[in-house]
Amino acid sequence: MKFFENLTIAKKLGLCFAVLIATTCGLVGLGLLSINEYRRSDLESARASSLEKSFMEYRLTFGHQRQALGLFMLTGDRRQLSTFTELGAHAEQSFQAFYRLAQGHVSADTQARELGSLYDNWVAEYADKQVALMRNHLTVNHARAIEVSGAPQELISAFDISADKLTEVLEQTIVSADERKASALAQ
């Protein structure tokens, strides 16, 4: 206390001003950190949202493709085959867009690779074979028997399980980013 009492008024005012400037600089620094955290969280949330949107498009296209194959096998209508083929090309494009977005997000990248592998297996092991069998009127029943056997459904179920895991991961990422944004605003 003696130190402060021995100072002149000019030095006391200078010291108080320096404390005010230091406090202001500290608060500005905290504000900038909060703003940066908010921006980072907002970018992460936006990225997860666009990844989820891209993934949902891929999943929906795959579902429509499966439906077109089922209708083709049920009715033998060749228009469903062209729909199946078009949707296959669209599913590939959707997957590529989805996979590009998933890179860099550890959990999503792993799930994206698994989903791509399951889709490719379904196409190679079942869909292409069923389409080839449906083209010959003597083997139509064999193509339908493959579907009824349940083997394609096992692969589709594995796809759905992996897709649900990815949806859960993306939702958790969005919720976590939103919580960090709220925390950054509260500081």
| β-strand number | 0
Global morphology: rod-shaped
End-to-end distance, in Å?
A: 34 Å
Helices and strands, in N-to-C order? Answer: HHHHHH
Which band does the percent of strand residues land in?
Answer: under 5%
Biggest sheet character: none
| Helix content bin | over 70%
Mean pLDDT: 89
Fold blueprint:
Elements: H1 2-6, H2 9-75, H3 78-102, H4 106-134, H5 140-148, H6 151-186
Helix pairs in contact: 2-3, 2-4, 2-6, 3-4, 4-5, 4-6
Q: How would you sum up this structure, described in words?
A:
This protein has 187 residues and is mainly α. Helices cover 91% and strands 0% of the residues. The protein contains 6 helices and no strands. It has helices at residues 2-6, 9-75, 78-102, 106-134, 140-148, 151-186. The protein starts with a helix and ends with a helix. The mean pLDDT is 89.
In short:
By secondary structure, this protein is mainly alpha-helical. The protein is built from six helices and no strands.
What characteristics describe this protein?
187 residues; mainly alpha
